[in-house]
Structures are given as structure tokens and as C-alpha cells.
């Protein structure tokens, strides 16, 4: 009897171990199928990522919802500060980072990136008439940035500038309105959206520079190759059938979509190879 029970127990244990290994998807990857994945995002950066009526939305997040549906997993959006987003992805707090994240070489040391789904520009929002139209004019100025952003890196290279770091976009716009900043360095689409929504505020777009070769991409942990493949597969399908173009047009009224992402276009913006 004891021998029979021992055999049964051993069989159950072996079966449980097999199921556990299968669920893990093998070393270096994690299957996303059927799971609800946590997505770190921001709440105050329209039209890309923002909170509206209690729901996280924007171009990035709606595109991710579409990809998730195609690839058979669910997403749960969680608001966070940008400064800690990539570390949160790397250590498993978030499965995906969705926040107009520029896929720079420095950031690829921390996380892996999907293929690119948008390009952008960095701009300096200033008081009207401030005449901050070139890099030289920014020297000696008090420039606000979101901590850890590409704009933070840009401002840090401006000779003589005093860089003031904030956890989110709303805080910086508030300081700019109060006159405690000379310039608020942000992605151009975010700056333009703010001006469109606040026409009475005497602000304008100043110096602007293109963010070359670092398109926006979704971030995942380096070991999660299965999820990375799913994101790239879903994105490619969304480009091919025109879904990317449709979602983009919903949020970007005055900025044309890159030809690489248009239905029938020549291909993806930048393929993040070797990450």
C-alpha cells in the first residue's frame, strides 16, 4: 500500500514539475499567451500616453491593446513616473513599458525594445517672445525636463544651462506658466498638444530638433524574448493591415505618419536588432 501511494505521489510530483516547466516557457523567455501583463505608463502626456475618464489611452497604449488582442494576451496599465519605468521593466515590476520611450543605445543596456512604432522631435516650450530659437539661445537658461527622458539628456548637453528635473509633464508645465522656468523641454507632440488645449496661455514652441535613429518602442525585460517576438509580430500585422495608420490618425491630427508605418509602406522604422 505504501509502495503504491509512493508511486502515486511521485507521479503527481513529476506531473507538477512538467507543468511548471511548461508554464515557464523555457530559459530566457516567458510565454504571454492568455496572461494579463502589467504595463507601466504615464498619465499626463497626450496624445501618446494619458489618462482619460479613468482609462489609460493615447496612441501608444491603444496600439498596445491592439497588439495584445492579436497575440492572445491581456494588458493592465499602471501609472508610474518615467524615471523609474525602465528599471521597473528590467526587474519585473512591469512586463512592458509603454511611454513613447526612445530606443537609445544607452537604454538598450537595461531593457530590450520592440521595433519602432513612431518618430518624434524634441522641442523647447517657452514664453511667447522669449526667442529661444537655437541651442546658443538656451545657454544660461533654466530648462525643465522629465527626469530620465531623452529631453533630460539633451538639456544636460546645453552649455551653461541649469537643468531642473521633474517627475511628470504636468509639474513642468505648471512651473513654466509660473515663470520659474525659461524653457520646458518636451517631445514636440506633447508641447503642441498642450498649446492646443490651452490657447489662452502665452506660450510657444521654440528650438526644435529631430530625434534621429531612436524611434519610440515598447520596452521589455531582456530575458523575455517570447514577449518581444509577440510585440514585433503584432506590430508588423498592425502596420500591414492599416491599423497603425488608423490609430495614429485618431490621436495625431496635424502630424503625418512616417511612410514606413503606412499601410503598404516600405517597412518598419528601425528594427531593434541584437537587444
From TrEMBL:
Every Solute-binding protein family 3/N-terminal domain range: 36-255
Organism in which the protein naturally occurs: Amycolatopsis balhimycina DSM 5908
Cited InterPro entries: Solute-binding_3/MltF_N
Gene3D superfamilies with a match to the protein in the record: Periplasmic binding protein-like II
Keywords attached to this entry: Signal
Pfam families tied to this protein: SBP_bac_3
Lineage: superkingdom: Bacteria
UniProt-recorded name of the protein: Amino acid ABC transporter substrate-binding protein
Signal peptide: 1-22
Amino acid at each position: 500500500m505504501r509502495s503504491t501511494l509512493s508511486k502515486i505521489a511521485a507521479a503527481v510530483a513529476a506531473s507538477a514539475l512538467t507543468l511548471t516547466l511548461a508554464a515557464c516557457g523555457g530559459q530566457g523567455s516567458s510565454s504571454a499567451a492568455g496572461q494579463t501583463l502589467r504595463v507601466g505608463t504615464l498619465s499626463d502626456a497626450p496624445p501618446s500616453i494619458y489618462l482619460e475618464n479613468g482609462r489609460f489611452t493615447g496612441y501608444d497604449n491603444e496600439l498596445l491593446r491592439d497588439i495584445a488582442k492579436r497575440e492572445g494576451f491581456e494588458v493592465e496599465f499602471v501609472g508610474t513616473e518615467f524615471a523609474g519605468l525602465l528599471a521597473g521593466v528590467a526587474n519585473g515590476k512591469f512586463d512592458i513599458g509603454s511611454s513613447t520611450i526612445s530606443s537609445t543605445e544607452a537604454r538598450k543596456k537595461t531593457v530590450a525594445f520592440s521595433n519602432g512604432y513612431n518618430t518624434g522631435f524634441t522641442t523647447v516650450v517657452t514664453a511667447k517672445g522669449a526667442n529661444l530659437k537655437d541651442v546658443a539661445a538656451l545657454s544660461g537658461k533654466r530648462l525643465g525636463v522629465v527626469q530620465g527622458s531623452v529631453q533630460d539628456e539633451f538639456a544636460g548637453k546645453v552649455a551653461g544651462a541649469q537643468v531642473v528635473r521633474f517627475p511628470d509633464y504636468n509639474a513642468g508645465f505648471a512651473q513654466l506658466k509660473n515663470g520659474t522656468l525659461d524653457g520646458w523641454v518636451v517631445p514636440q507632440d506633447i508641447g503642441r498638444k498642450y498649446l492646443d488645449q490651452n490657447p489662452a496661455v502665452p506660450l510657444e514652441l521654440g528650438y526644435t530638433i529631430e530625434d534621429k535613429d531612436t524611434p519610440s518602442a515598447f520596452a521589455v525585460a531582456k530575458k523575455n524574448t517570447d514577449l518581444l517576438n509577440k510585440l514585433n509580430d503584432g506590430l508588423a500585422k498592425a502596420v500591414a493591415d492599416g491599423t497603425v495608420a488608423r490609430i495614429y490618425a485618431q490621436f495625431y491630427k496635424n502630424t503625418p505618419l512616417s511612410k514606413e508605418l503606412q499601410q503598404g509602406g516600405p517597412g518598419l522604422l528601425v528594427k531593434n536588432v541584437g537587444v
